[in-house]
C-alpha cells in the first residue's frame, strides 16, 4: 500500500446517503472510513457494496473486549475484505495479539490493524480523575502505541499533533492515522486539536481521516482533491 493517503470519514446514517455521496466521485475512488453509525445501521452488506465499487475501506469499529471475543469477531471481519480496521489498545497486548490472530486469513494475509490509544475526546484531567491513570496523557499515548507495536499491530490512530512523538517512540514505519484535520481557511467545528493537511504531512501522518471538510463541502470532490494535493502529492 502506498504511503500517505486521505481517508474520507463517511459519517452517514444510511446506505442511500452514503452511495449518493460516493456517486460524485467519478474519477479516482477515495479510501473511505465506515464507522459504527453506518455499520450498525446497514450491517456488513454496506461494506461489501462499497468495496464492490472499488473503494479501499477502513472499518472503524474500535473493538475492545476479552481476547477470545475479539479474536472471534476479527475472524468474521476478515471475510469482509476491508483494508484496515482497529481495536482499543486499552484491551491490552494479549487482546491485540488475539485480534491479529483472528484477522489473519488462511493464506497469511490480513487487513492493516491499528489501535486507538486515548480517544481525543478524553482530556488528561478526566483520564487521571475518572480512569485513575496517573501518567500524563502523552506518556499514556506513547505507552499504548508501544504496546500496539509489541503486539504486532501496524500503527495507531492519534491526533496529528501526537504523530511525531509516536514516530519517535515506535519508528518511522509504525503508521499514524490521524483525524482532526481542517483546511487553513475552514471551520473547526467540534474538533479541538486540529491541523491542516499540509502540516499533518510535515509532522509525519501516514493517513489523514477527513470528514466534514469533505462531506459537508459545497463541492466534495474538489475538497477531496485539495486534501490529496496538500497531503498526499
Ligand atoms: O468531520 P471530521 O473531520 O471531524 O471527522 C473526523 C472523523 O474521525 C470522525 O469519523 C470521527 O469520529 C473520527 N475520529 C476523531 N477523533 C478520534 C478518533 C476518530 O475525530 N480520536
Instruction: State the fourth-level CATH superfamily.
Output: Aldolase class I
Distance between the termini: 15 Å
Strand neighbour order, sheet with most strands = 1-2-3-4-5-6-7-8
Number of domains: 1
- What's the total count of β strands? 8
Distinct ligands, ions and cofactors found in the model: cytidine-5'-monophosphate
The gross shape turns out to be globular
Word description of this protein:
By secondary structure, this protein is an alpha/beta fold. It has one domain (about 5-230): Aldolase class I (TIM Barrel, Alpha-Beta Barrel), CATH 3.20.20.70. Helices cover about 45% and strands about 15% of the residues. The chain has eleven helices and eight strands. The chain is globular and about 45 Å long. Cytidine-5'-monophosphate binds near residues 9 and 211. Cytidine-5'-monophosphate (C5P) binds near residues 9, 179, 180 and 210.
Quickly describe the structure.
The chain has 233 residues and is α/β, with parallel strands linked by helices. The chain has eleven helices and eight strands. It has an eight-stranded parallel β-barrel with strand order 1-2-3-4-5-6-7-8, surrounded by six helices.
Please render the helix and strand layout as text:
Blueprint: E1 5-9, H1 15-23, E2 31-35, H2 36-42, H3 45-52, E3 57-63, H4 67-77, E4 84-88, H5 92-103, E5 112-116, H6 124-130, H7 137-151, E6 155-157, H8 160-170, E7 175-178, H9 197-203, E8 207-210, H10 212-215, H11 220-232
Parallel strand pairs: 1-2, 1-8, 2-3, 3-4, 4-5, 5-6, 6-7, 7-8
Helix pairs in contact: 4-5, 5-7, 7-8, 9-11
The site of cytidine-5'-monophosphate has 14 residues, from strand 8 and helix 10.
Amino acid at each position: 500500500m502506498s504511503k500517505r493517503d486521505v481517508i474520507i470519514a463517511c459519517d452517514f446514517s444510511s446506505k442511500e446517503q452514503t452511495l449518493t455521496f460516493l456517486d460524485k466521485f467519478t474519477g479516482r475512488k477515495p479510501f473511505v472510513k465506515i464507522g459504527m453509525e453506518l455499520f450498525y445501521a446497514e450491517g456488513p452488506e454496506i461494506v461489501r457494496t462499497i468495496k464492490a465499487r472499488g473503494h479501499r475501506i477502513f472499518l472503524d469499529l474500535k473493538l475492545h473486549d476479552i481476547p477470545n471475543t475479539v479474536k472471534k469477531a476479527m475472524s468474521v471481519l476478515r471475510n469482509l475484505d476491508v483494508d484496515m480496521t482497529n481495536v482499543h489498545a486499552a484491551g491490552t497486548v494479549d487482546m491485540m495479539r488475539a485480534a491479529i490472530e483472528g484477522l489473519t486469513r488462511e493464506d497469511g494475509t490480513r487487513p492493516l490493524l491499528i489501535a486507538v490509544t486515548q480517544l481525543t475526546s478524553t482530556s488528561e484531567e478526566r483520564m487521571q480523575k475518572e480512569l485513575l491513570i496517573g501518567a500524563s496523557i502523552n506518556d499514556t499515548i506513547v505507552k499504548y502505541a508501544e504496546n500496539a507495536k509489541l503486539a504486532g499491530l501496524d500503527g495507531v490512530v492519534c491526533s496529528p499533533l501526537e504523530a511525531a512523538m509516536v514516530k519517535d517512540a515506535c519508528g518511522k514505519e509504525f503508521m499514524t492515522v490521524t483525524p482532526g484535520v481542517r483546511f487553513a481557511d475552514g471551520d473547526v467545528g467540534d474538533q479541538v486539536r486540529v491541523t491542516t493537511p499540509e502540516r499533518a504531512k510535515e509532522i509525519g501522518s501516514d493517513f489523514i481521516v477527513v470528514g466534514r471538510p469533505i462531506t459537508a463541502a459545497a463541492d466534495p470532490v474538489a475538497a477531496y482533491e485539495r486534501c490529496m494535493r496538500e497531503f498526499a502529492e
